[in-house]
Amino acid sequence: MTTLRAGVIGVGHLGQHHARLYAELPDSTLVGVTDQDLGRARTIAERHRAQTFERVQDLLKTVEVVSVAVPTSSHYAVAKACLEAGKHVLVEKPIAVFPAEAEELVNLAKTKGCTLQVGHSERFNPIVPAMWPFMHRPVLIEGQRLGIYSARGTDVDVVLDLMIHDLDLLLSCHLGTVLHVQAVGVSVLSPTHDMANARIQFEGGCVANLTASRISPKAMRQWRVFQKDGSVSIDFQSRQGVIGRRAAEPAEQTMAVAEEIQAGDGEPLRFQLESFLSAVRFASRPIIAGEDGAAALKLAHRVLSAMKVSGEEKRPEYP
Q1: Domain regions of the chain by residue span
Q2: Does the pTM of the predicted model rise above 0.85?
Q3: By percentage, how much of the chain surpasses pLDDT 70?
Q4: pLDDT (tens digit per residue) in 18-77
Q5: 123-267+300-308 classified as CATH 3.30.360.10
Q6: Is residue 15 within 8 Å of 21, Cβ to Cβ?
Q7: CATH homologous superfamily, domain 4-120+268-288
Q8: pLDDT tens digits, residue range 145-157?
Q9: Closest CA to 319 of 133, 98, 88
Q10: Do the two domains 4-120+268-288 and 123-267+300-308 of this chain adopt the same fold?
Q11: What is the reported pLDDT for 154?
Q12: Please, are residues 33 and 19 in contact by the beta-carbon 8 Å criterion?
C-alpha cells in the first residue's frame, strides 16, 4: 500500500511537529513544506529531507494531504485554497475565526469529496479515553486552562486560542443542547481578551464553568466533574485522573472511595495525524470532523457574544 504524499503549510511552533510526524509515520511521506519565513521552511525541510516551496499553490500540486498550521486569522483562507485544490485537509484549531467561514469550509469539503479534520488535539490526549467512561450524566463541570503568556496566538481572543479546547471537549460529552451562556473577559497584555470565564448551561441539566487565561504564572489544564454517584478529576498535563465514589456502606464509611488512573505518555499529535491519515485512506468520518470544529467555534462565539465588555475598551467585532 502506497503512502500518502503530505505537506505542511506553516512550520512554526506546531507545524514543525506536523512535518516531523508526516516524515516518521508509515502511512505518509513528507513531500514538502512552506512558510512565510522561507528560511524557517528550508530548515524544517532539510531536517526531514523534504522540499521547500515558496508558494502554497506549488506545494498543493505535489501532495494529497496537507496540514494547515498557520496563524488562526489565516486558517479560513489557506484551508479554503487547499480544499478548492481537492486536497484532504487537517486544519489546526480553531477551524476558522468566524462560524460562517467554518460552515463554508465544511460545505466545500463535501462538495469536493475531501476529508476535513480539525486539530483539537486534546481529544487525543490519552487521559481522555481513559476517563470519559467514568463520566455519567455530570451535574457540574469546572475547567481551568491556564497558560504562561506568549505572543503566539494573540491574533485572536483567548476563547478561540485556549478555551475552545474545553468547548470541544464539552460538546464531545453529548450533554444536550446549550440553553444559556454567561461570560466575562479581561484584556491585560493584548488587544483581545487574555482571560475569560464562561458559565454554560445544557439542556440535560449540566452546568459547565470554564476559565481560560494566557497570562497565568503557571500552566494548568484541569477538569473537575461532579455527578450524582461521585466525582471525576482530570489533569490533562500530567495525564492523571482520580475517580471519587460514594462508599458502599455509608453508615460505616462516609469518605469517598478514590481510584487513581495514570494514562500513557503517547503523543496526542501523533495520534491525531494517524487518525487523519486513516480517515483519508478509508474515506471514513474523522474523529473530529469539520462539523465538530464548526460546532465548537459556534459555541465559542456564543461565549464571546455573552461577554460583558467595557464600552471604552477596543475589541474585535464578533457577529
Answers
A1: 4-120+268-288, 123-267+300-308
A2: yes
A3: 91
A4: 999 999 999 999 999 999 999 999 999 999 999 999 999 999 999 999 999 999 999 999
A5: yes
A6: no
A7: NAD(P)-binding Rossmann-like Domain (3.40.50.720)
A8: 999 877 665 678 9
A9: 98
A10: no
A11: 66
A12: yes
Cell 482520580 belongs to residue: 242
Reported as a single tens digit per residue, the pLDDT across 93-148 is 999 999 999 999 999 999 999 999 999 999 999 999 999 999 989 999 999 999 98
Which residue has 476563547 as its cell numbers? 159
Q: Which three cell numbers stand for residue 230?
A: 461521585
> Grid coordinates in use for 219?
500552566
